[in-house]
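Need tokens for this chain, all 321 residues.
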Amino acid sequence: MLIAVLVILGIIIIAAVAVIAYAVKVSIIRPKIDKKDDYESLDEKRKIRFKLRQRNNRYLYDHKPEDLSLTDKFGNELKAWFVPSPSSKKFVIAVHGYKCNGPDECSHLFPFYYDKLGFNYLLPDHAAHGRSSGKYIGFGSFESENLLLWVNYLIERFGEDIEIVLHGISMGAATVMLANESNPPKQVKAVVEDCGYTSAYEILANTIRDTVGFNCPHIAKAIILFAKLFLGYDMNEADCIGRMKDASAPILFVHGMADTFVPFNMGERLYEACDSVPKDKFFVEGAVHAYCYYDAKDAYDEKMVEFFSKHLSDFDAVSTN
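Here are the structure tokens for all 321 residues:
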């Protein structure tokens, strides 16, 4: 009887370890080959976005962006594209999301910031994404530190009198919120977070629930514990809502009301939790995850112009460029 119990216990332990190992692999380890969209397998909405991304990427590369690099505390080489606007002291750092890259996620914002507003445009790739090196993903826990490396790079290169906007999408939105909650330099004047999540734990638990069909928060906790014990970073620090009281610059909260990947209620909760800095919101009815700009471009642009006019100096003059 004892042997049978031990055998069953052993099987349960092996199964649990296997599940956790698989969860770690698919959630925080960079795929061996970056995922590419199979155009024919996409629905019509995503086919349209695919073509827009190709067009926007070509437009970005037509401007012959500078190829920049930094090294983070883990020794990862961080890559970024940079398009300078010599007549402007205003900069935007556009931050992409989970398992994407800078151009594919954010080049659609380039015409607005560069052409309409005349901003300098910096487009970094997270560690373990795009052109940057690295194997592990931190859901904003260390990516926010890396973002501040880029902020400091711009200040050192262009001077103390610059103004910086942080604009992030999905995991990039979490990253810009966390950077804003980490005592950023005074040159960070405004933050746009588009469909960001409340915390690494909540988004992991939500994704696992959607994948397996039932709540299993212990898997999310196990992934976080693994990263802390073996990889040297603590995803519990990626607590955007818990650290909201430490926010420094004003925040524009953007979210699609039909978003289920990062549920819309997370956007509502983040907005409500923000009471230490000026804030505004732009919630788009019917928009799914990361589609607010595609579904409501003109209104999105207008909201950003309105927001920046309140929080950036001499913005009216810049916005007429």
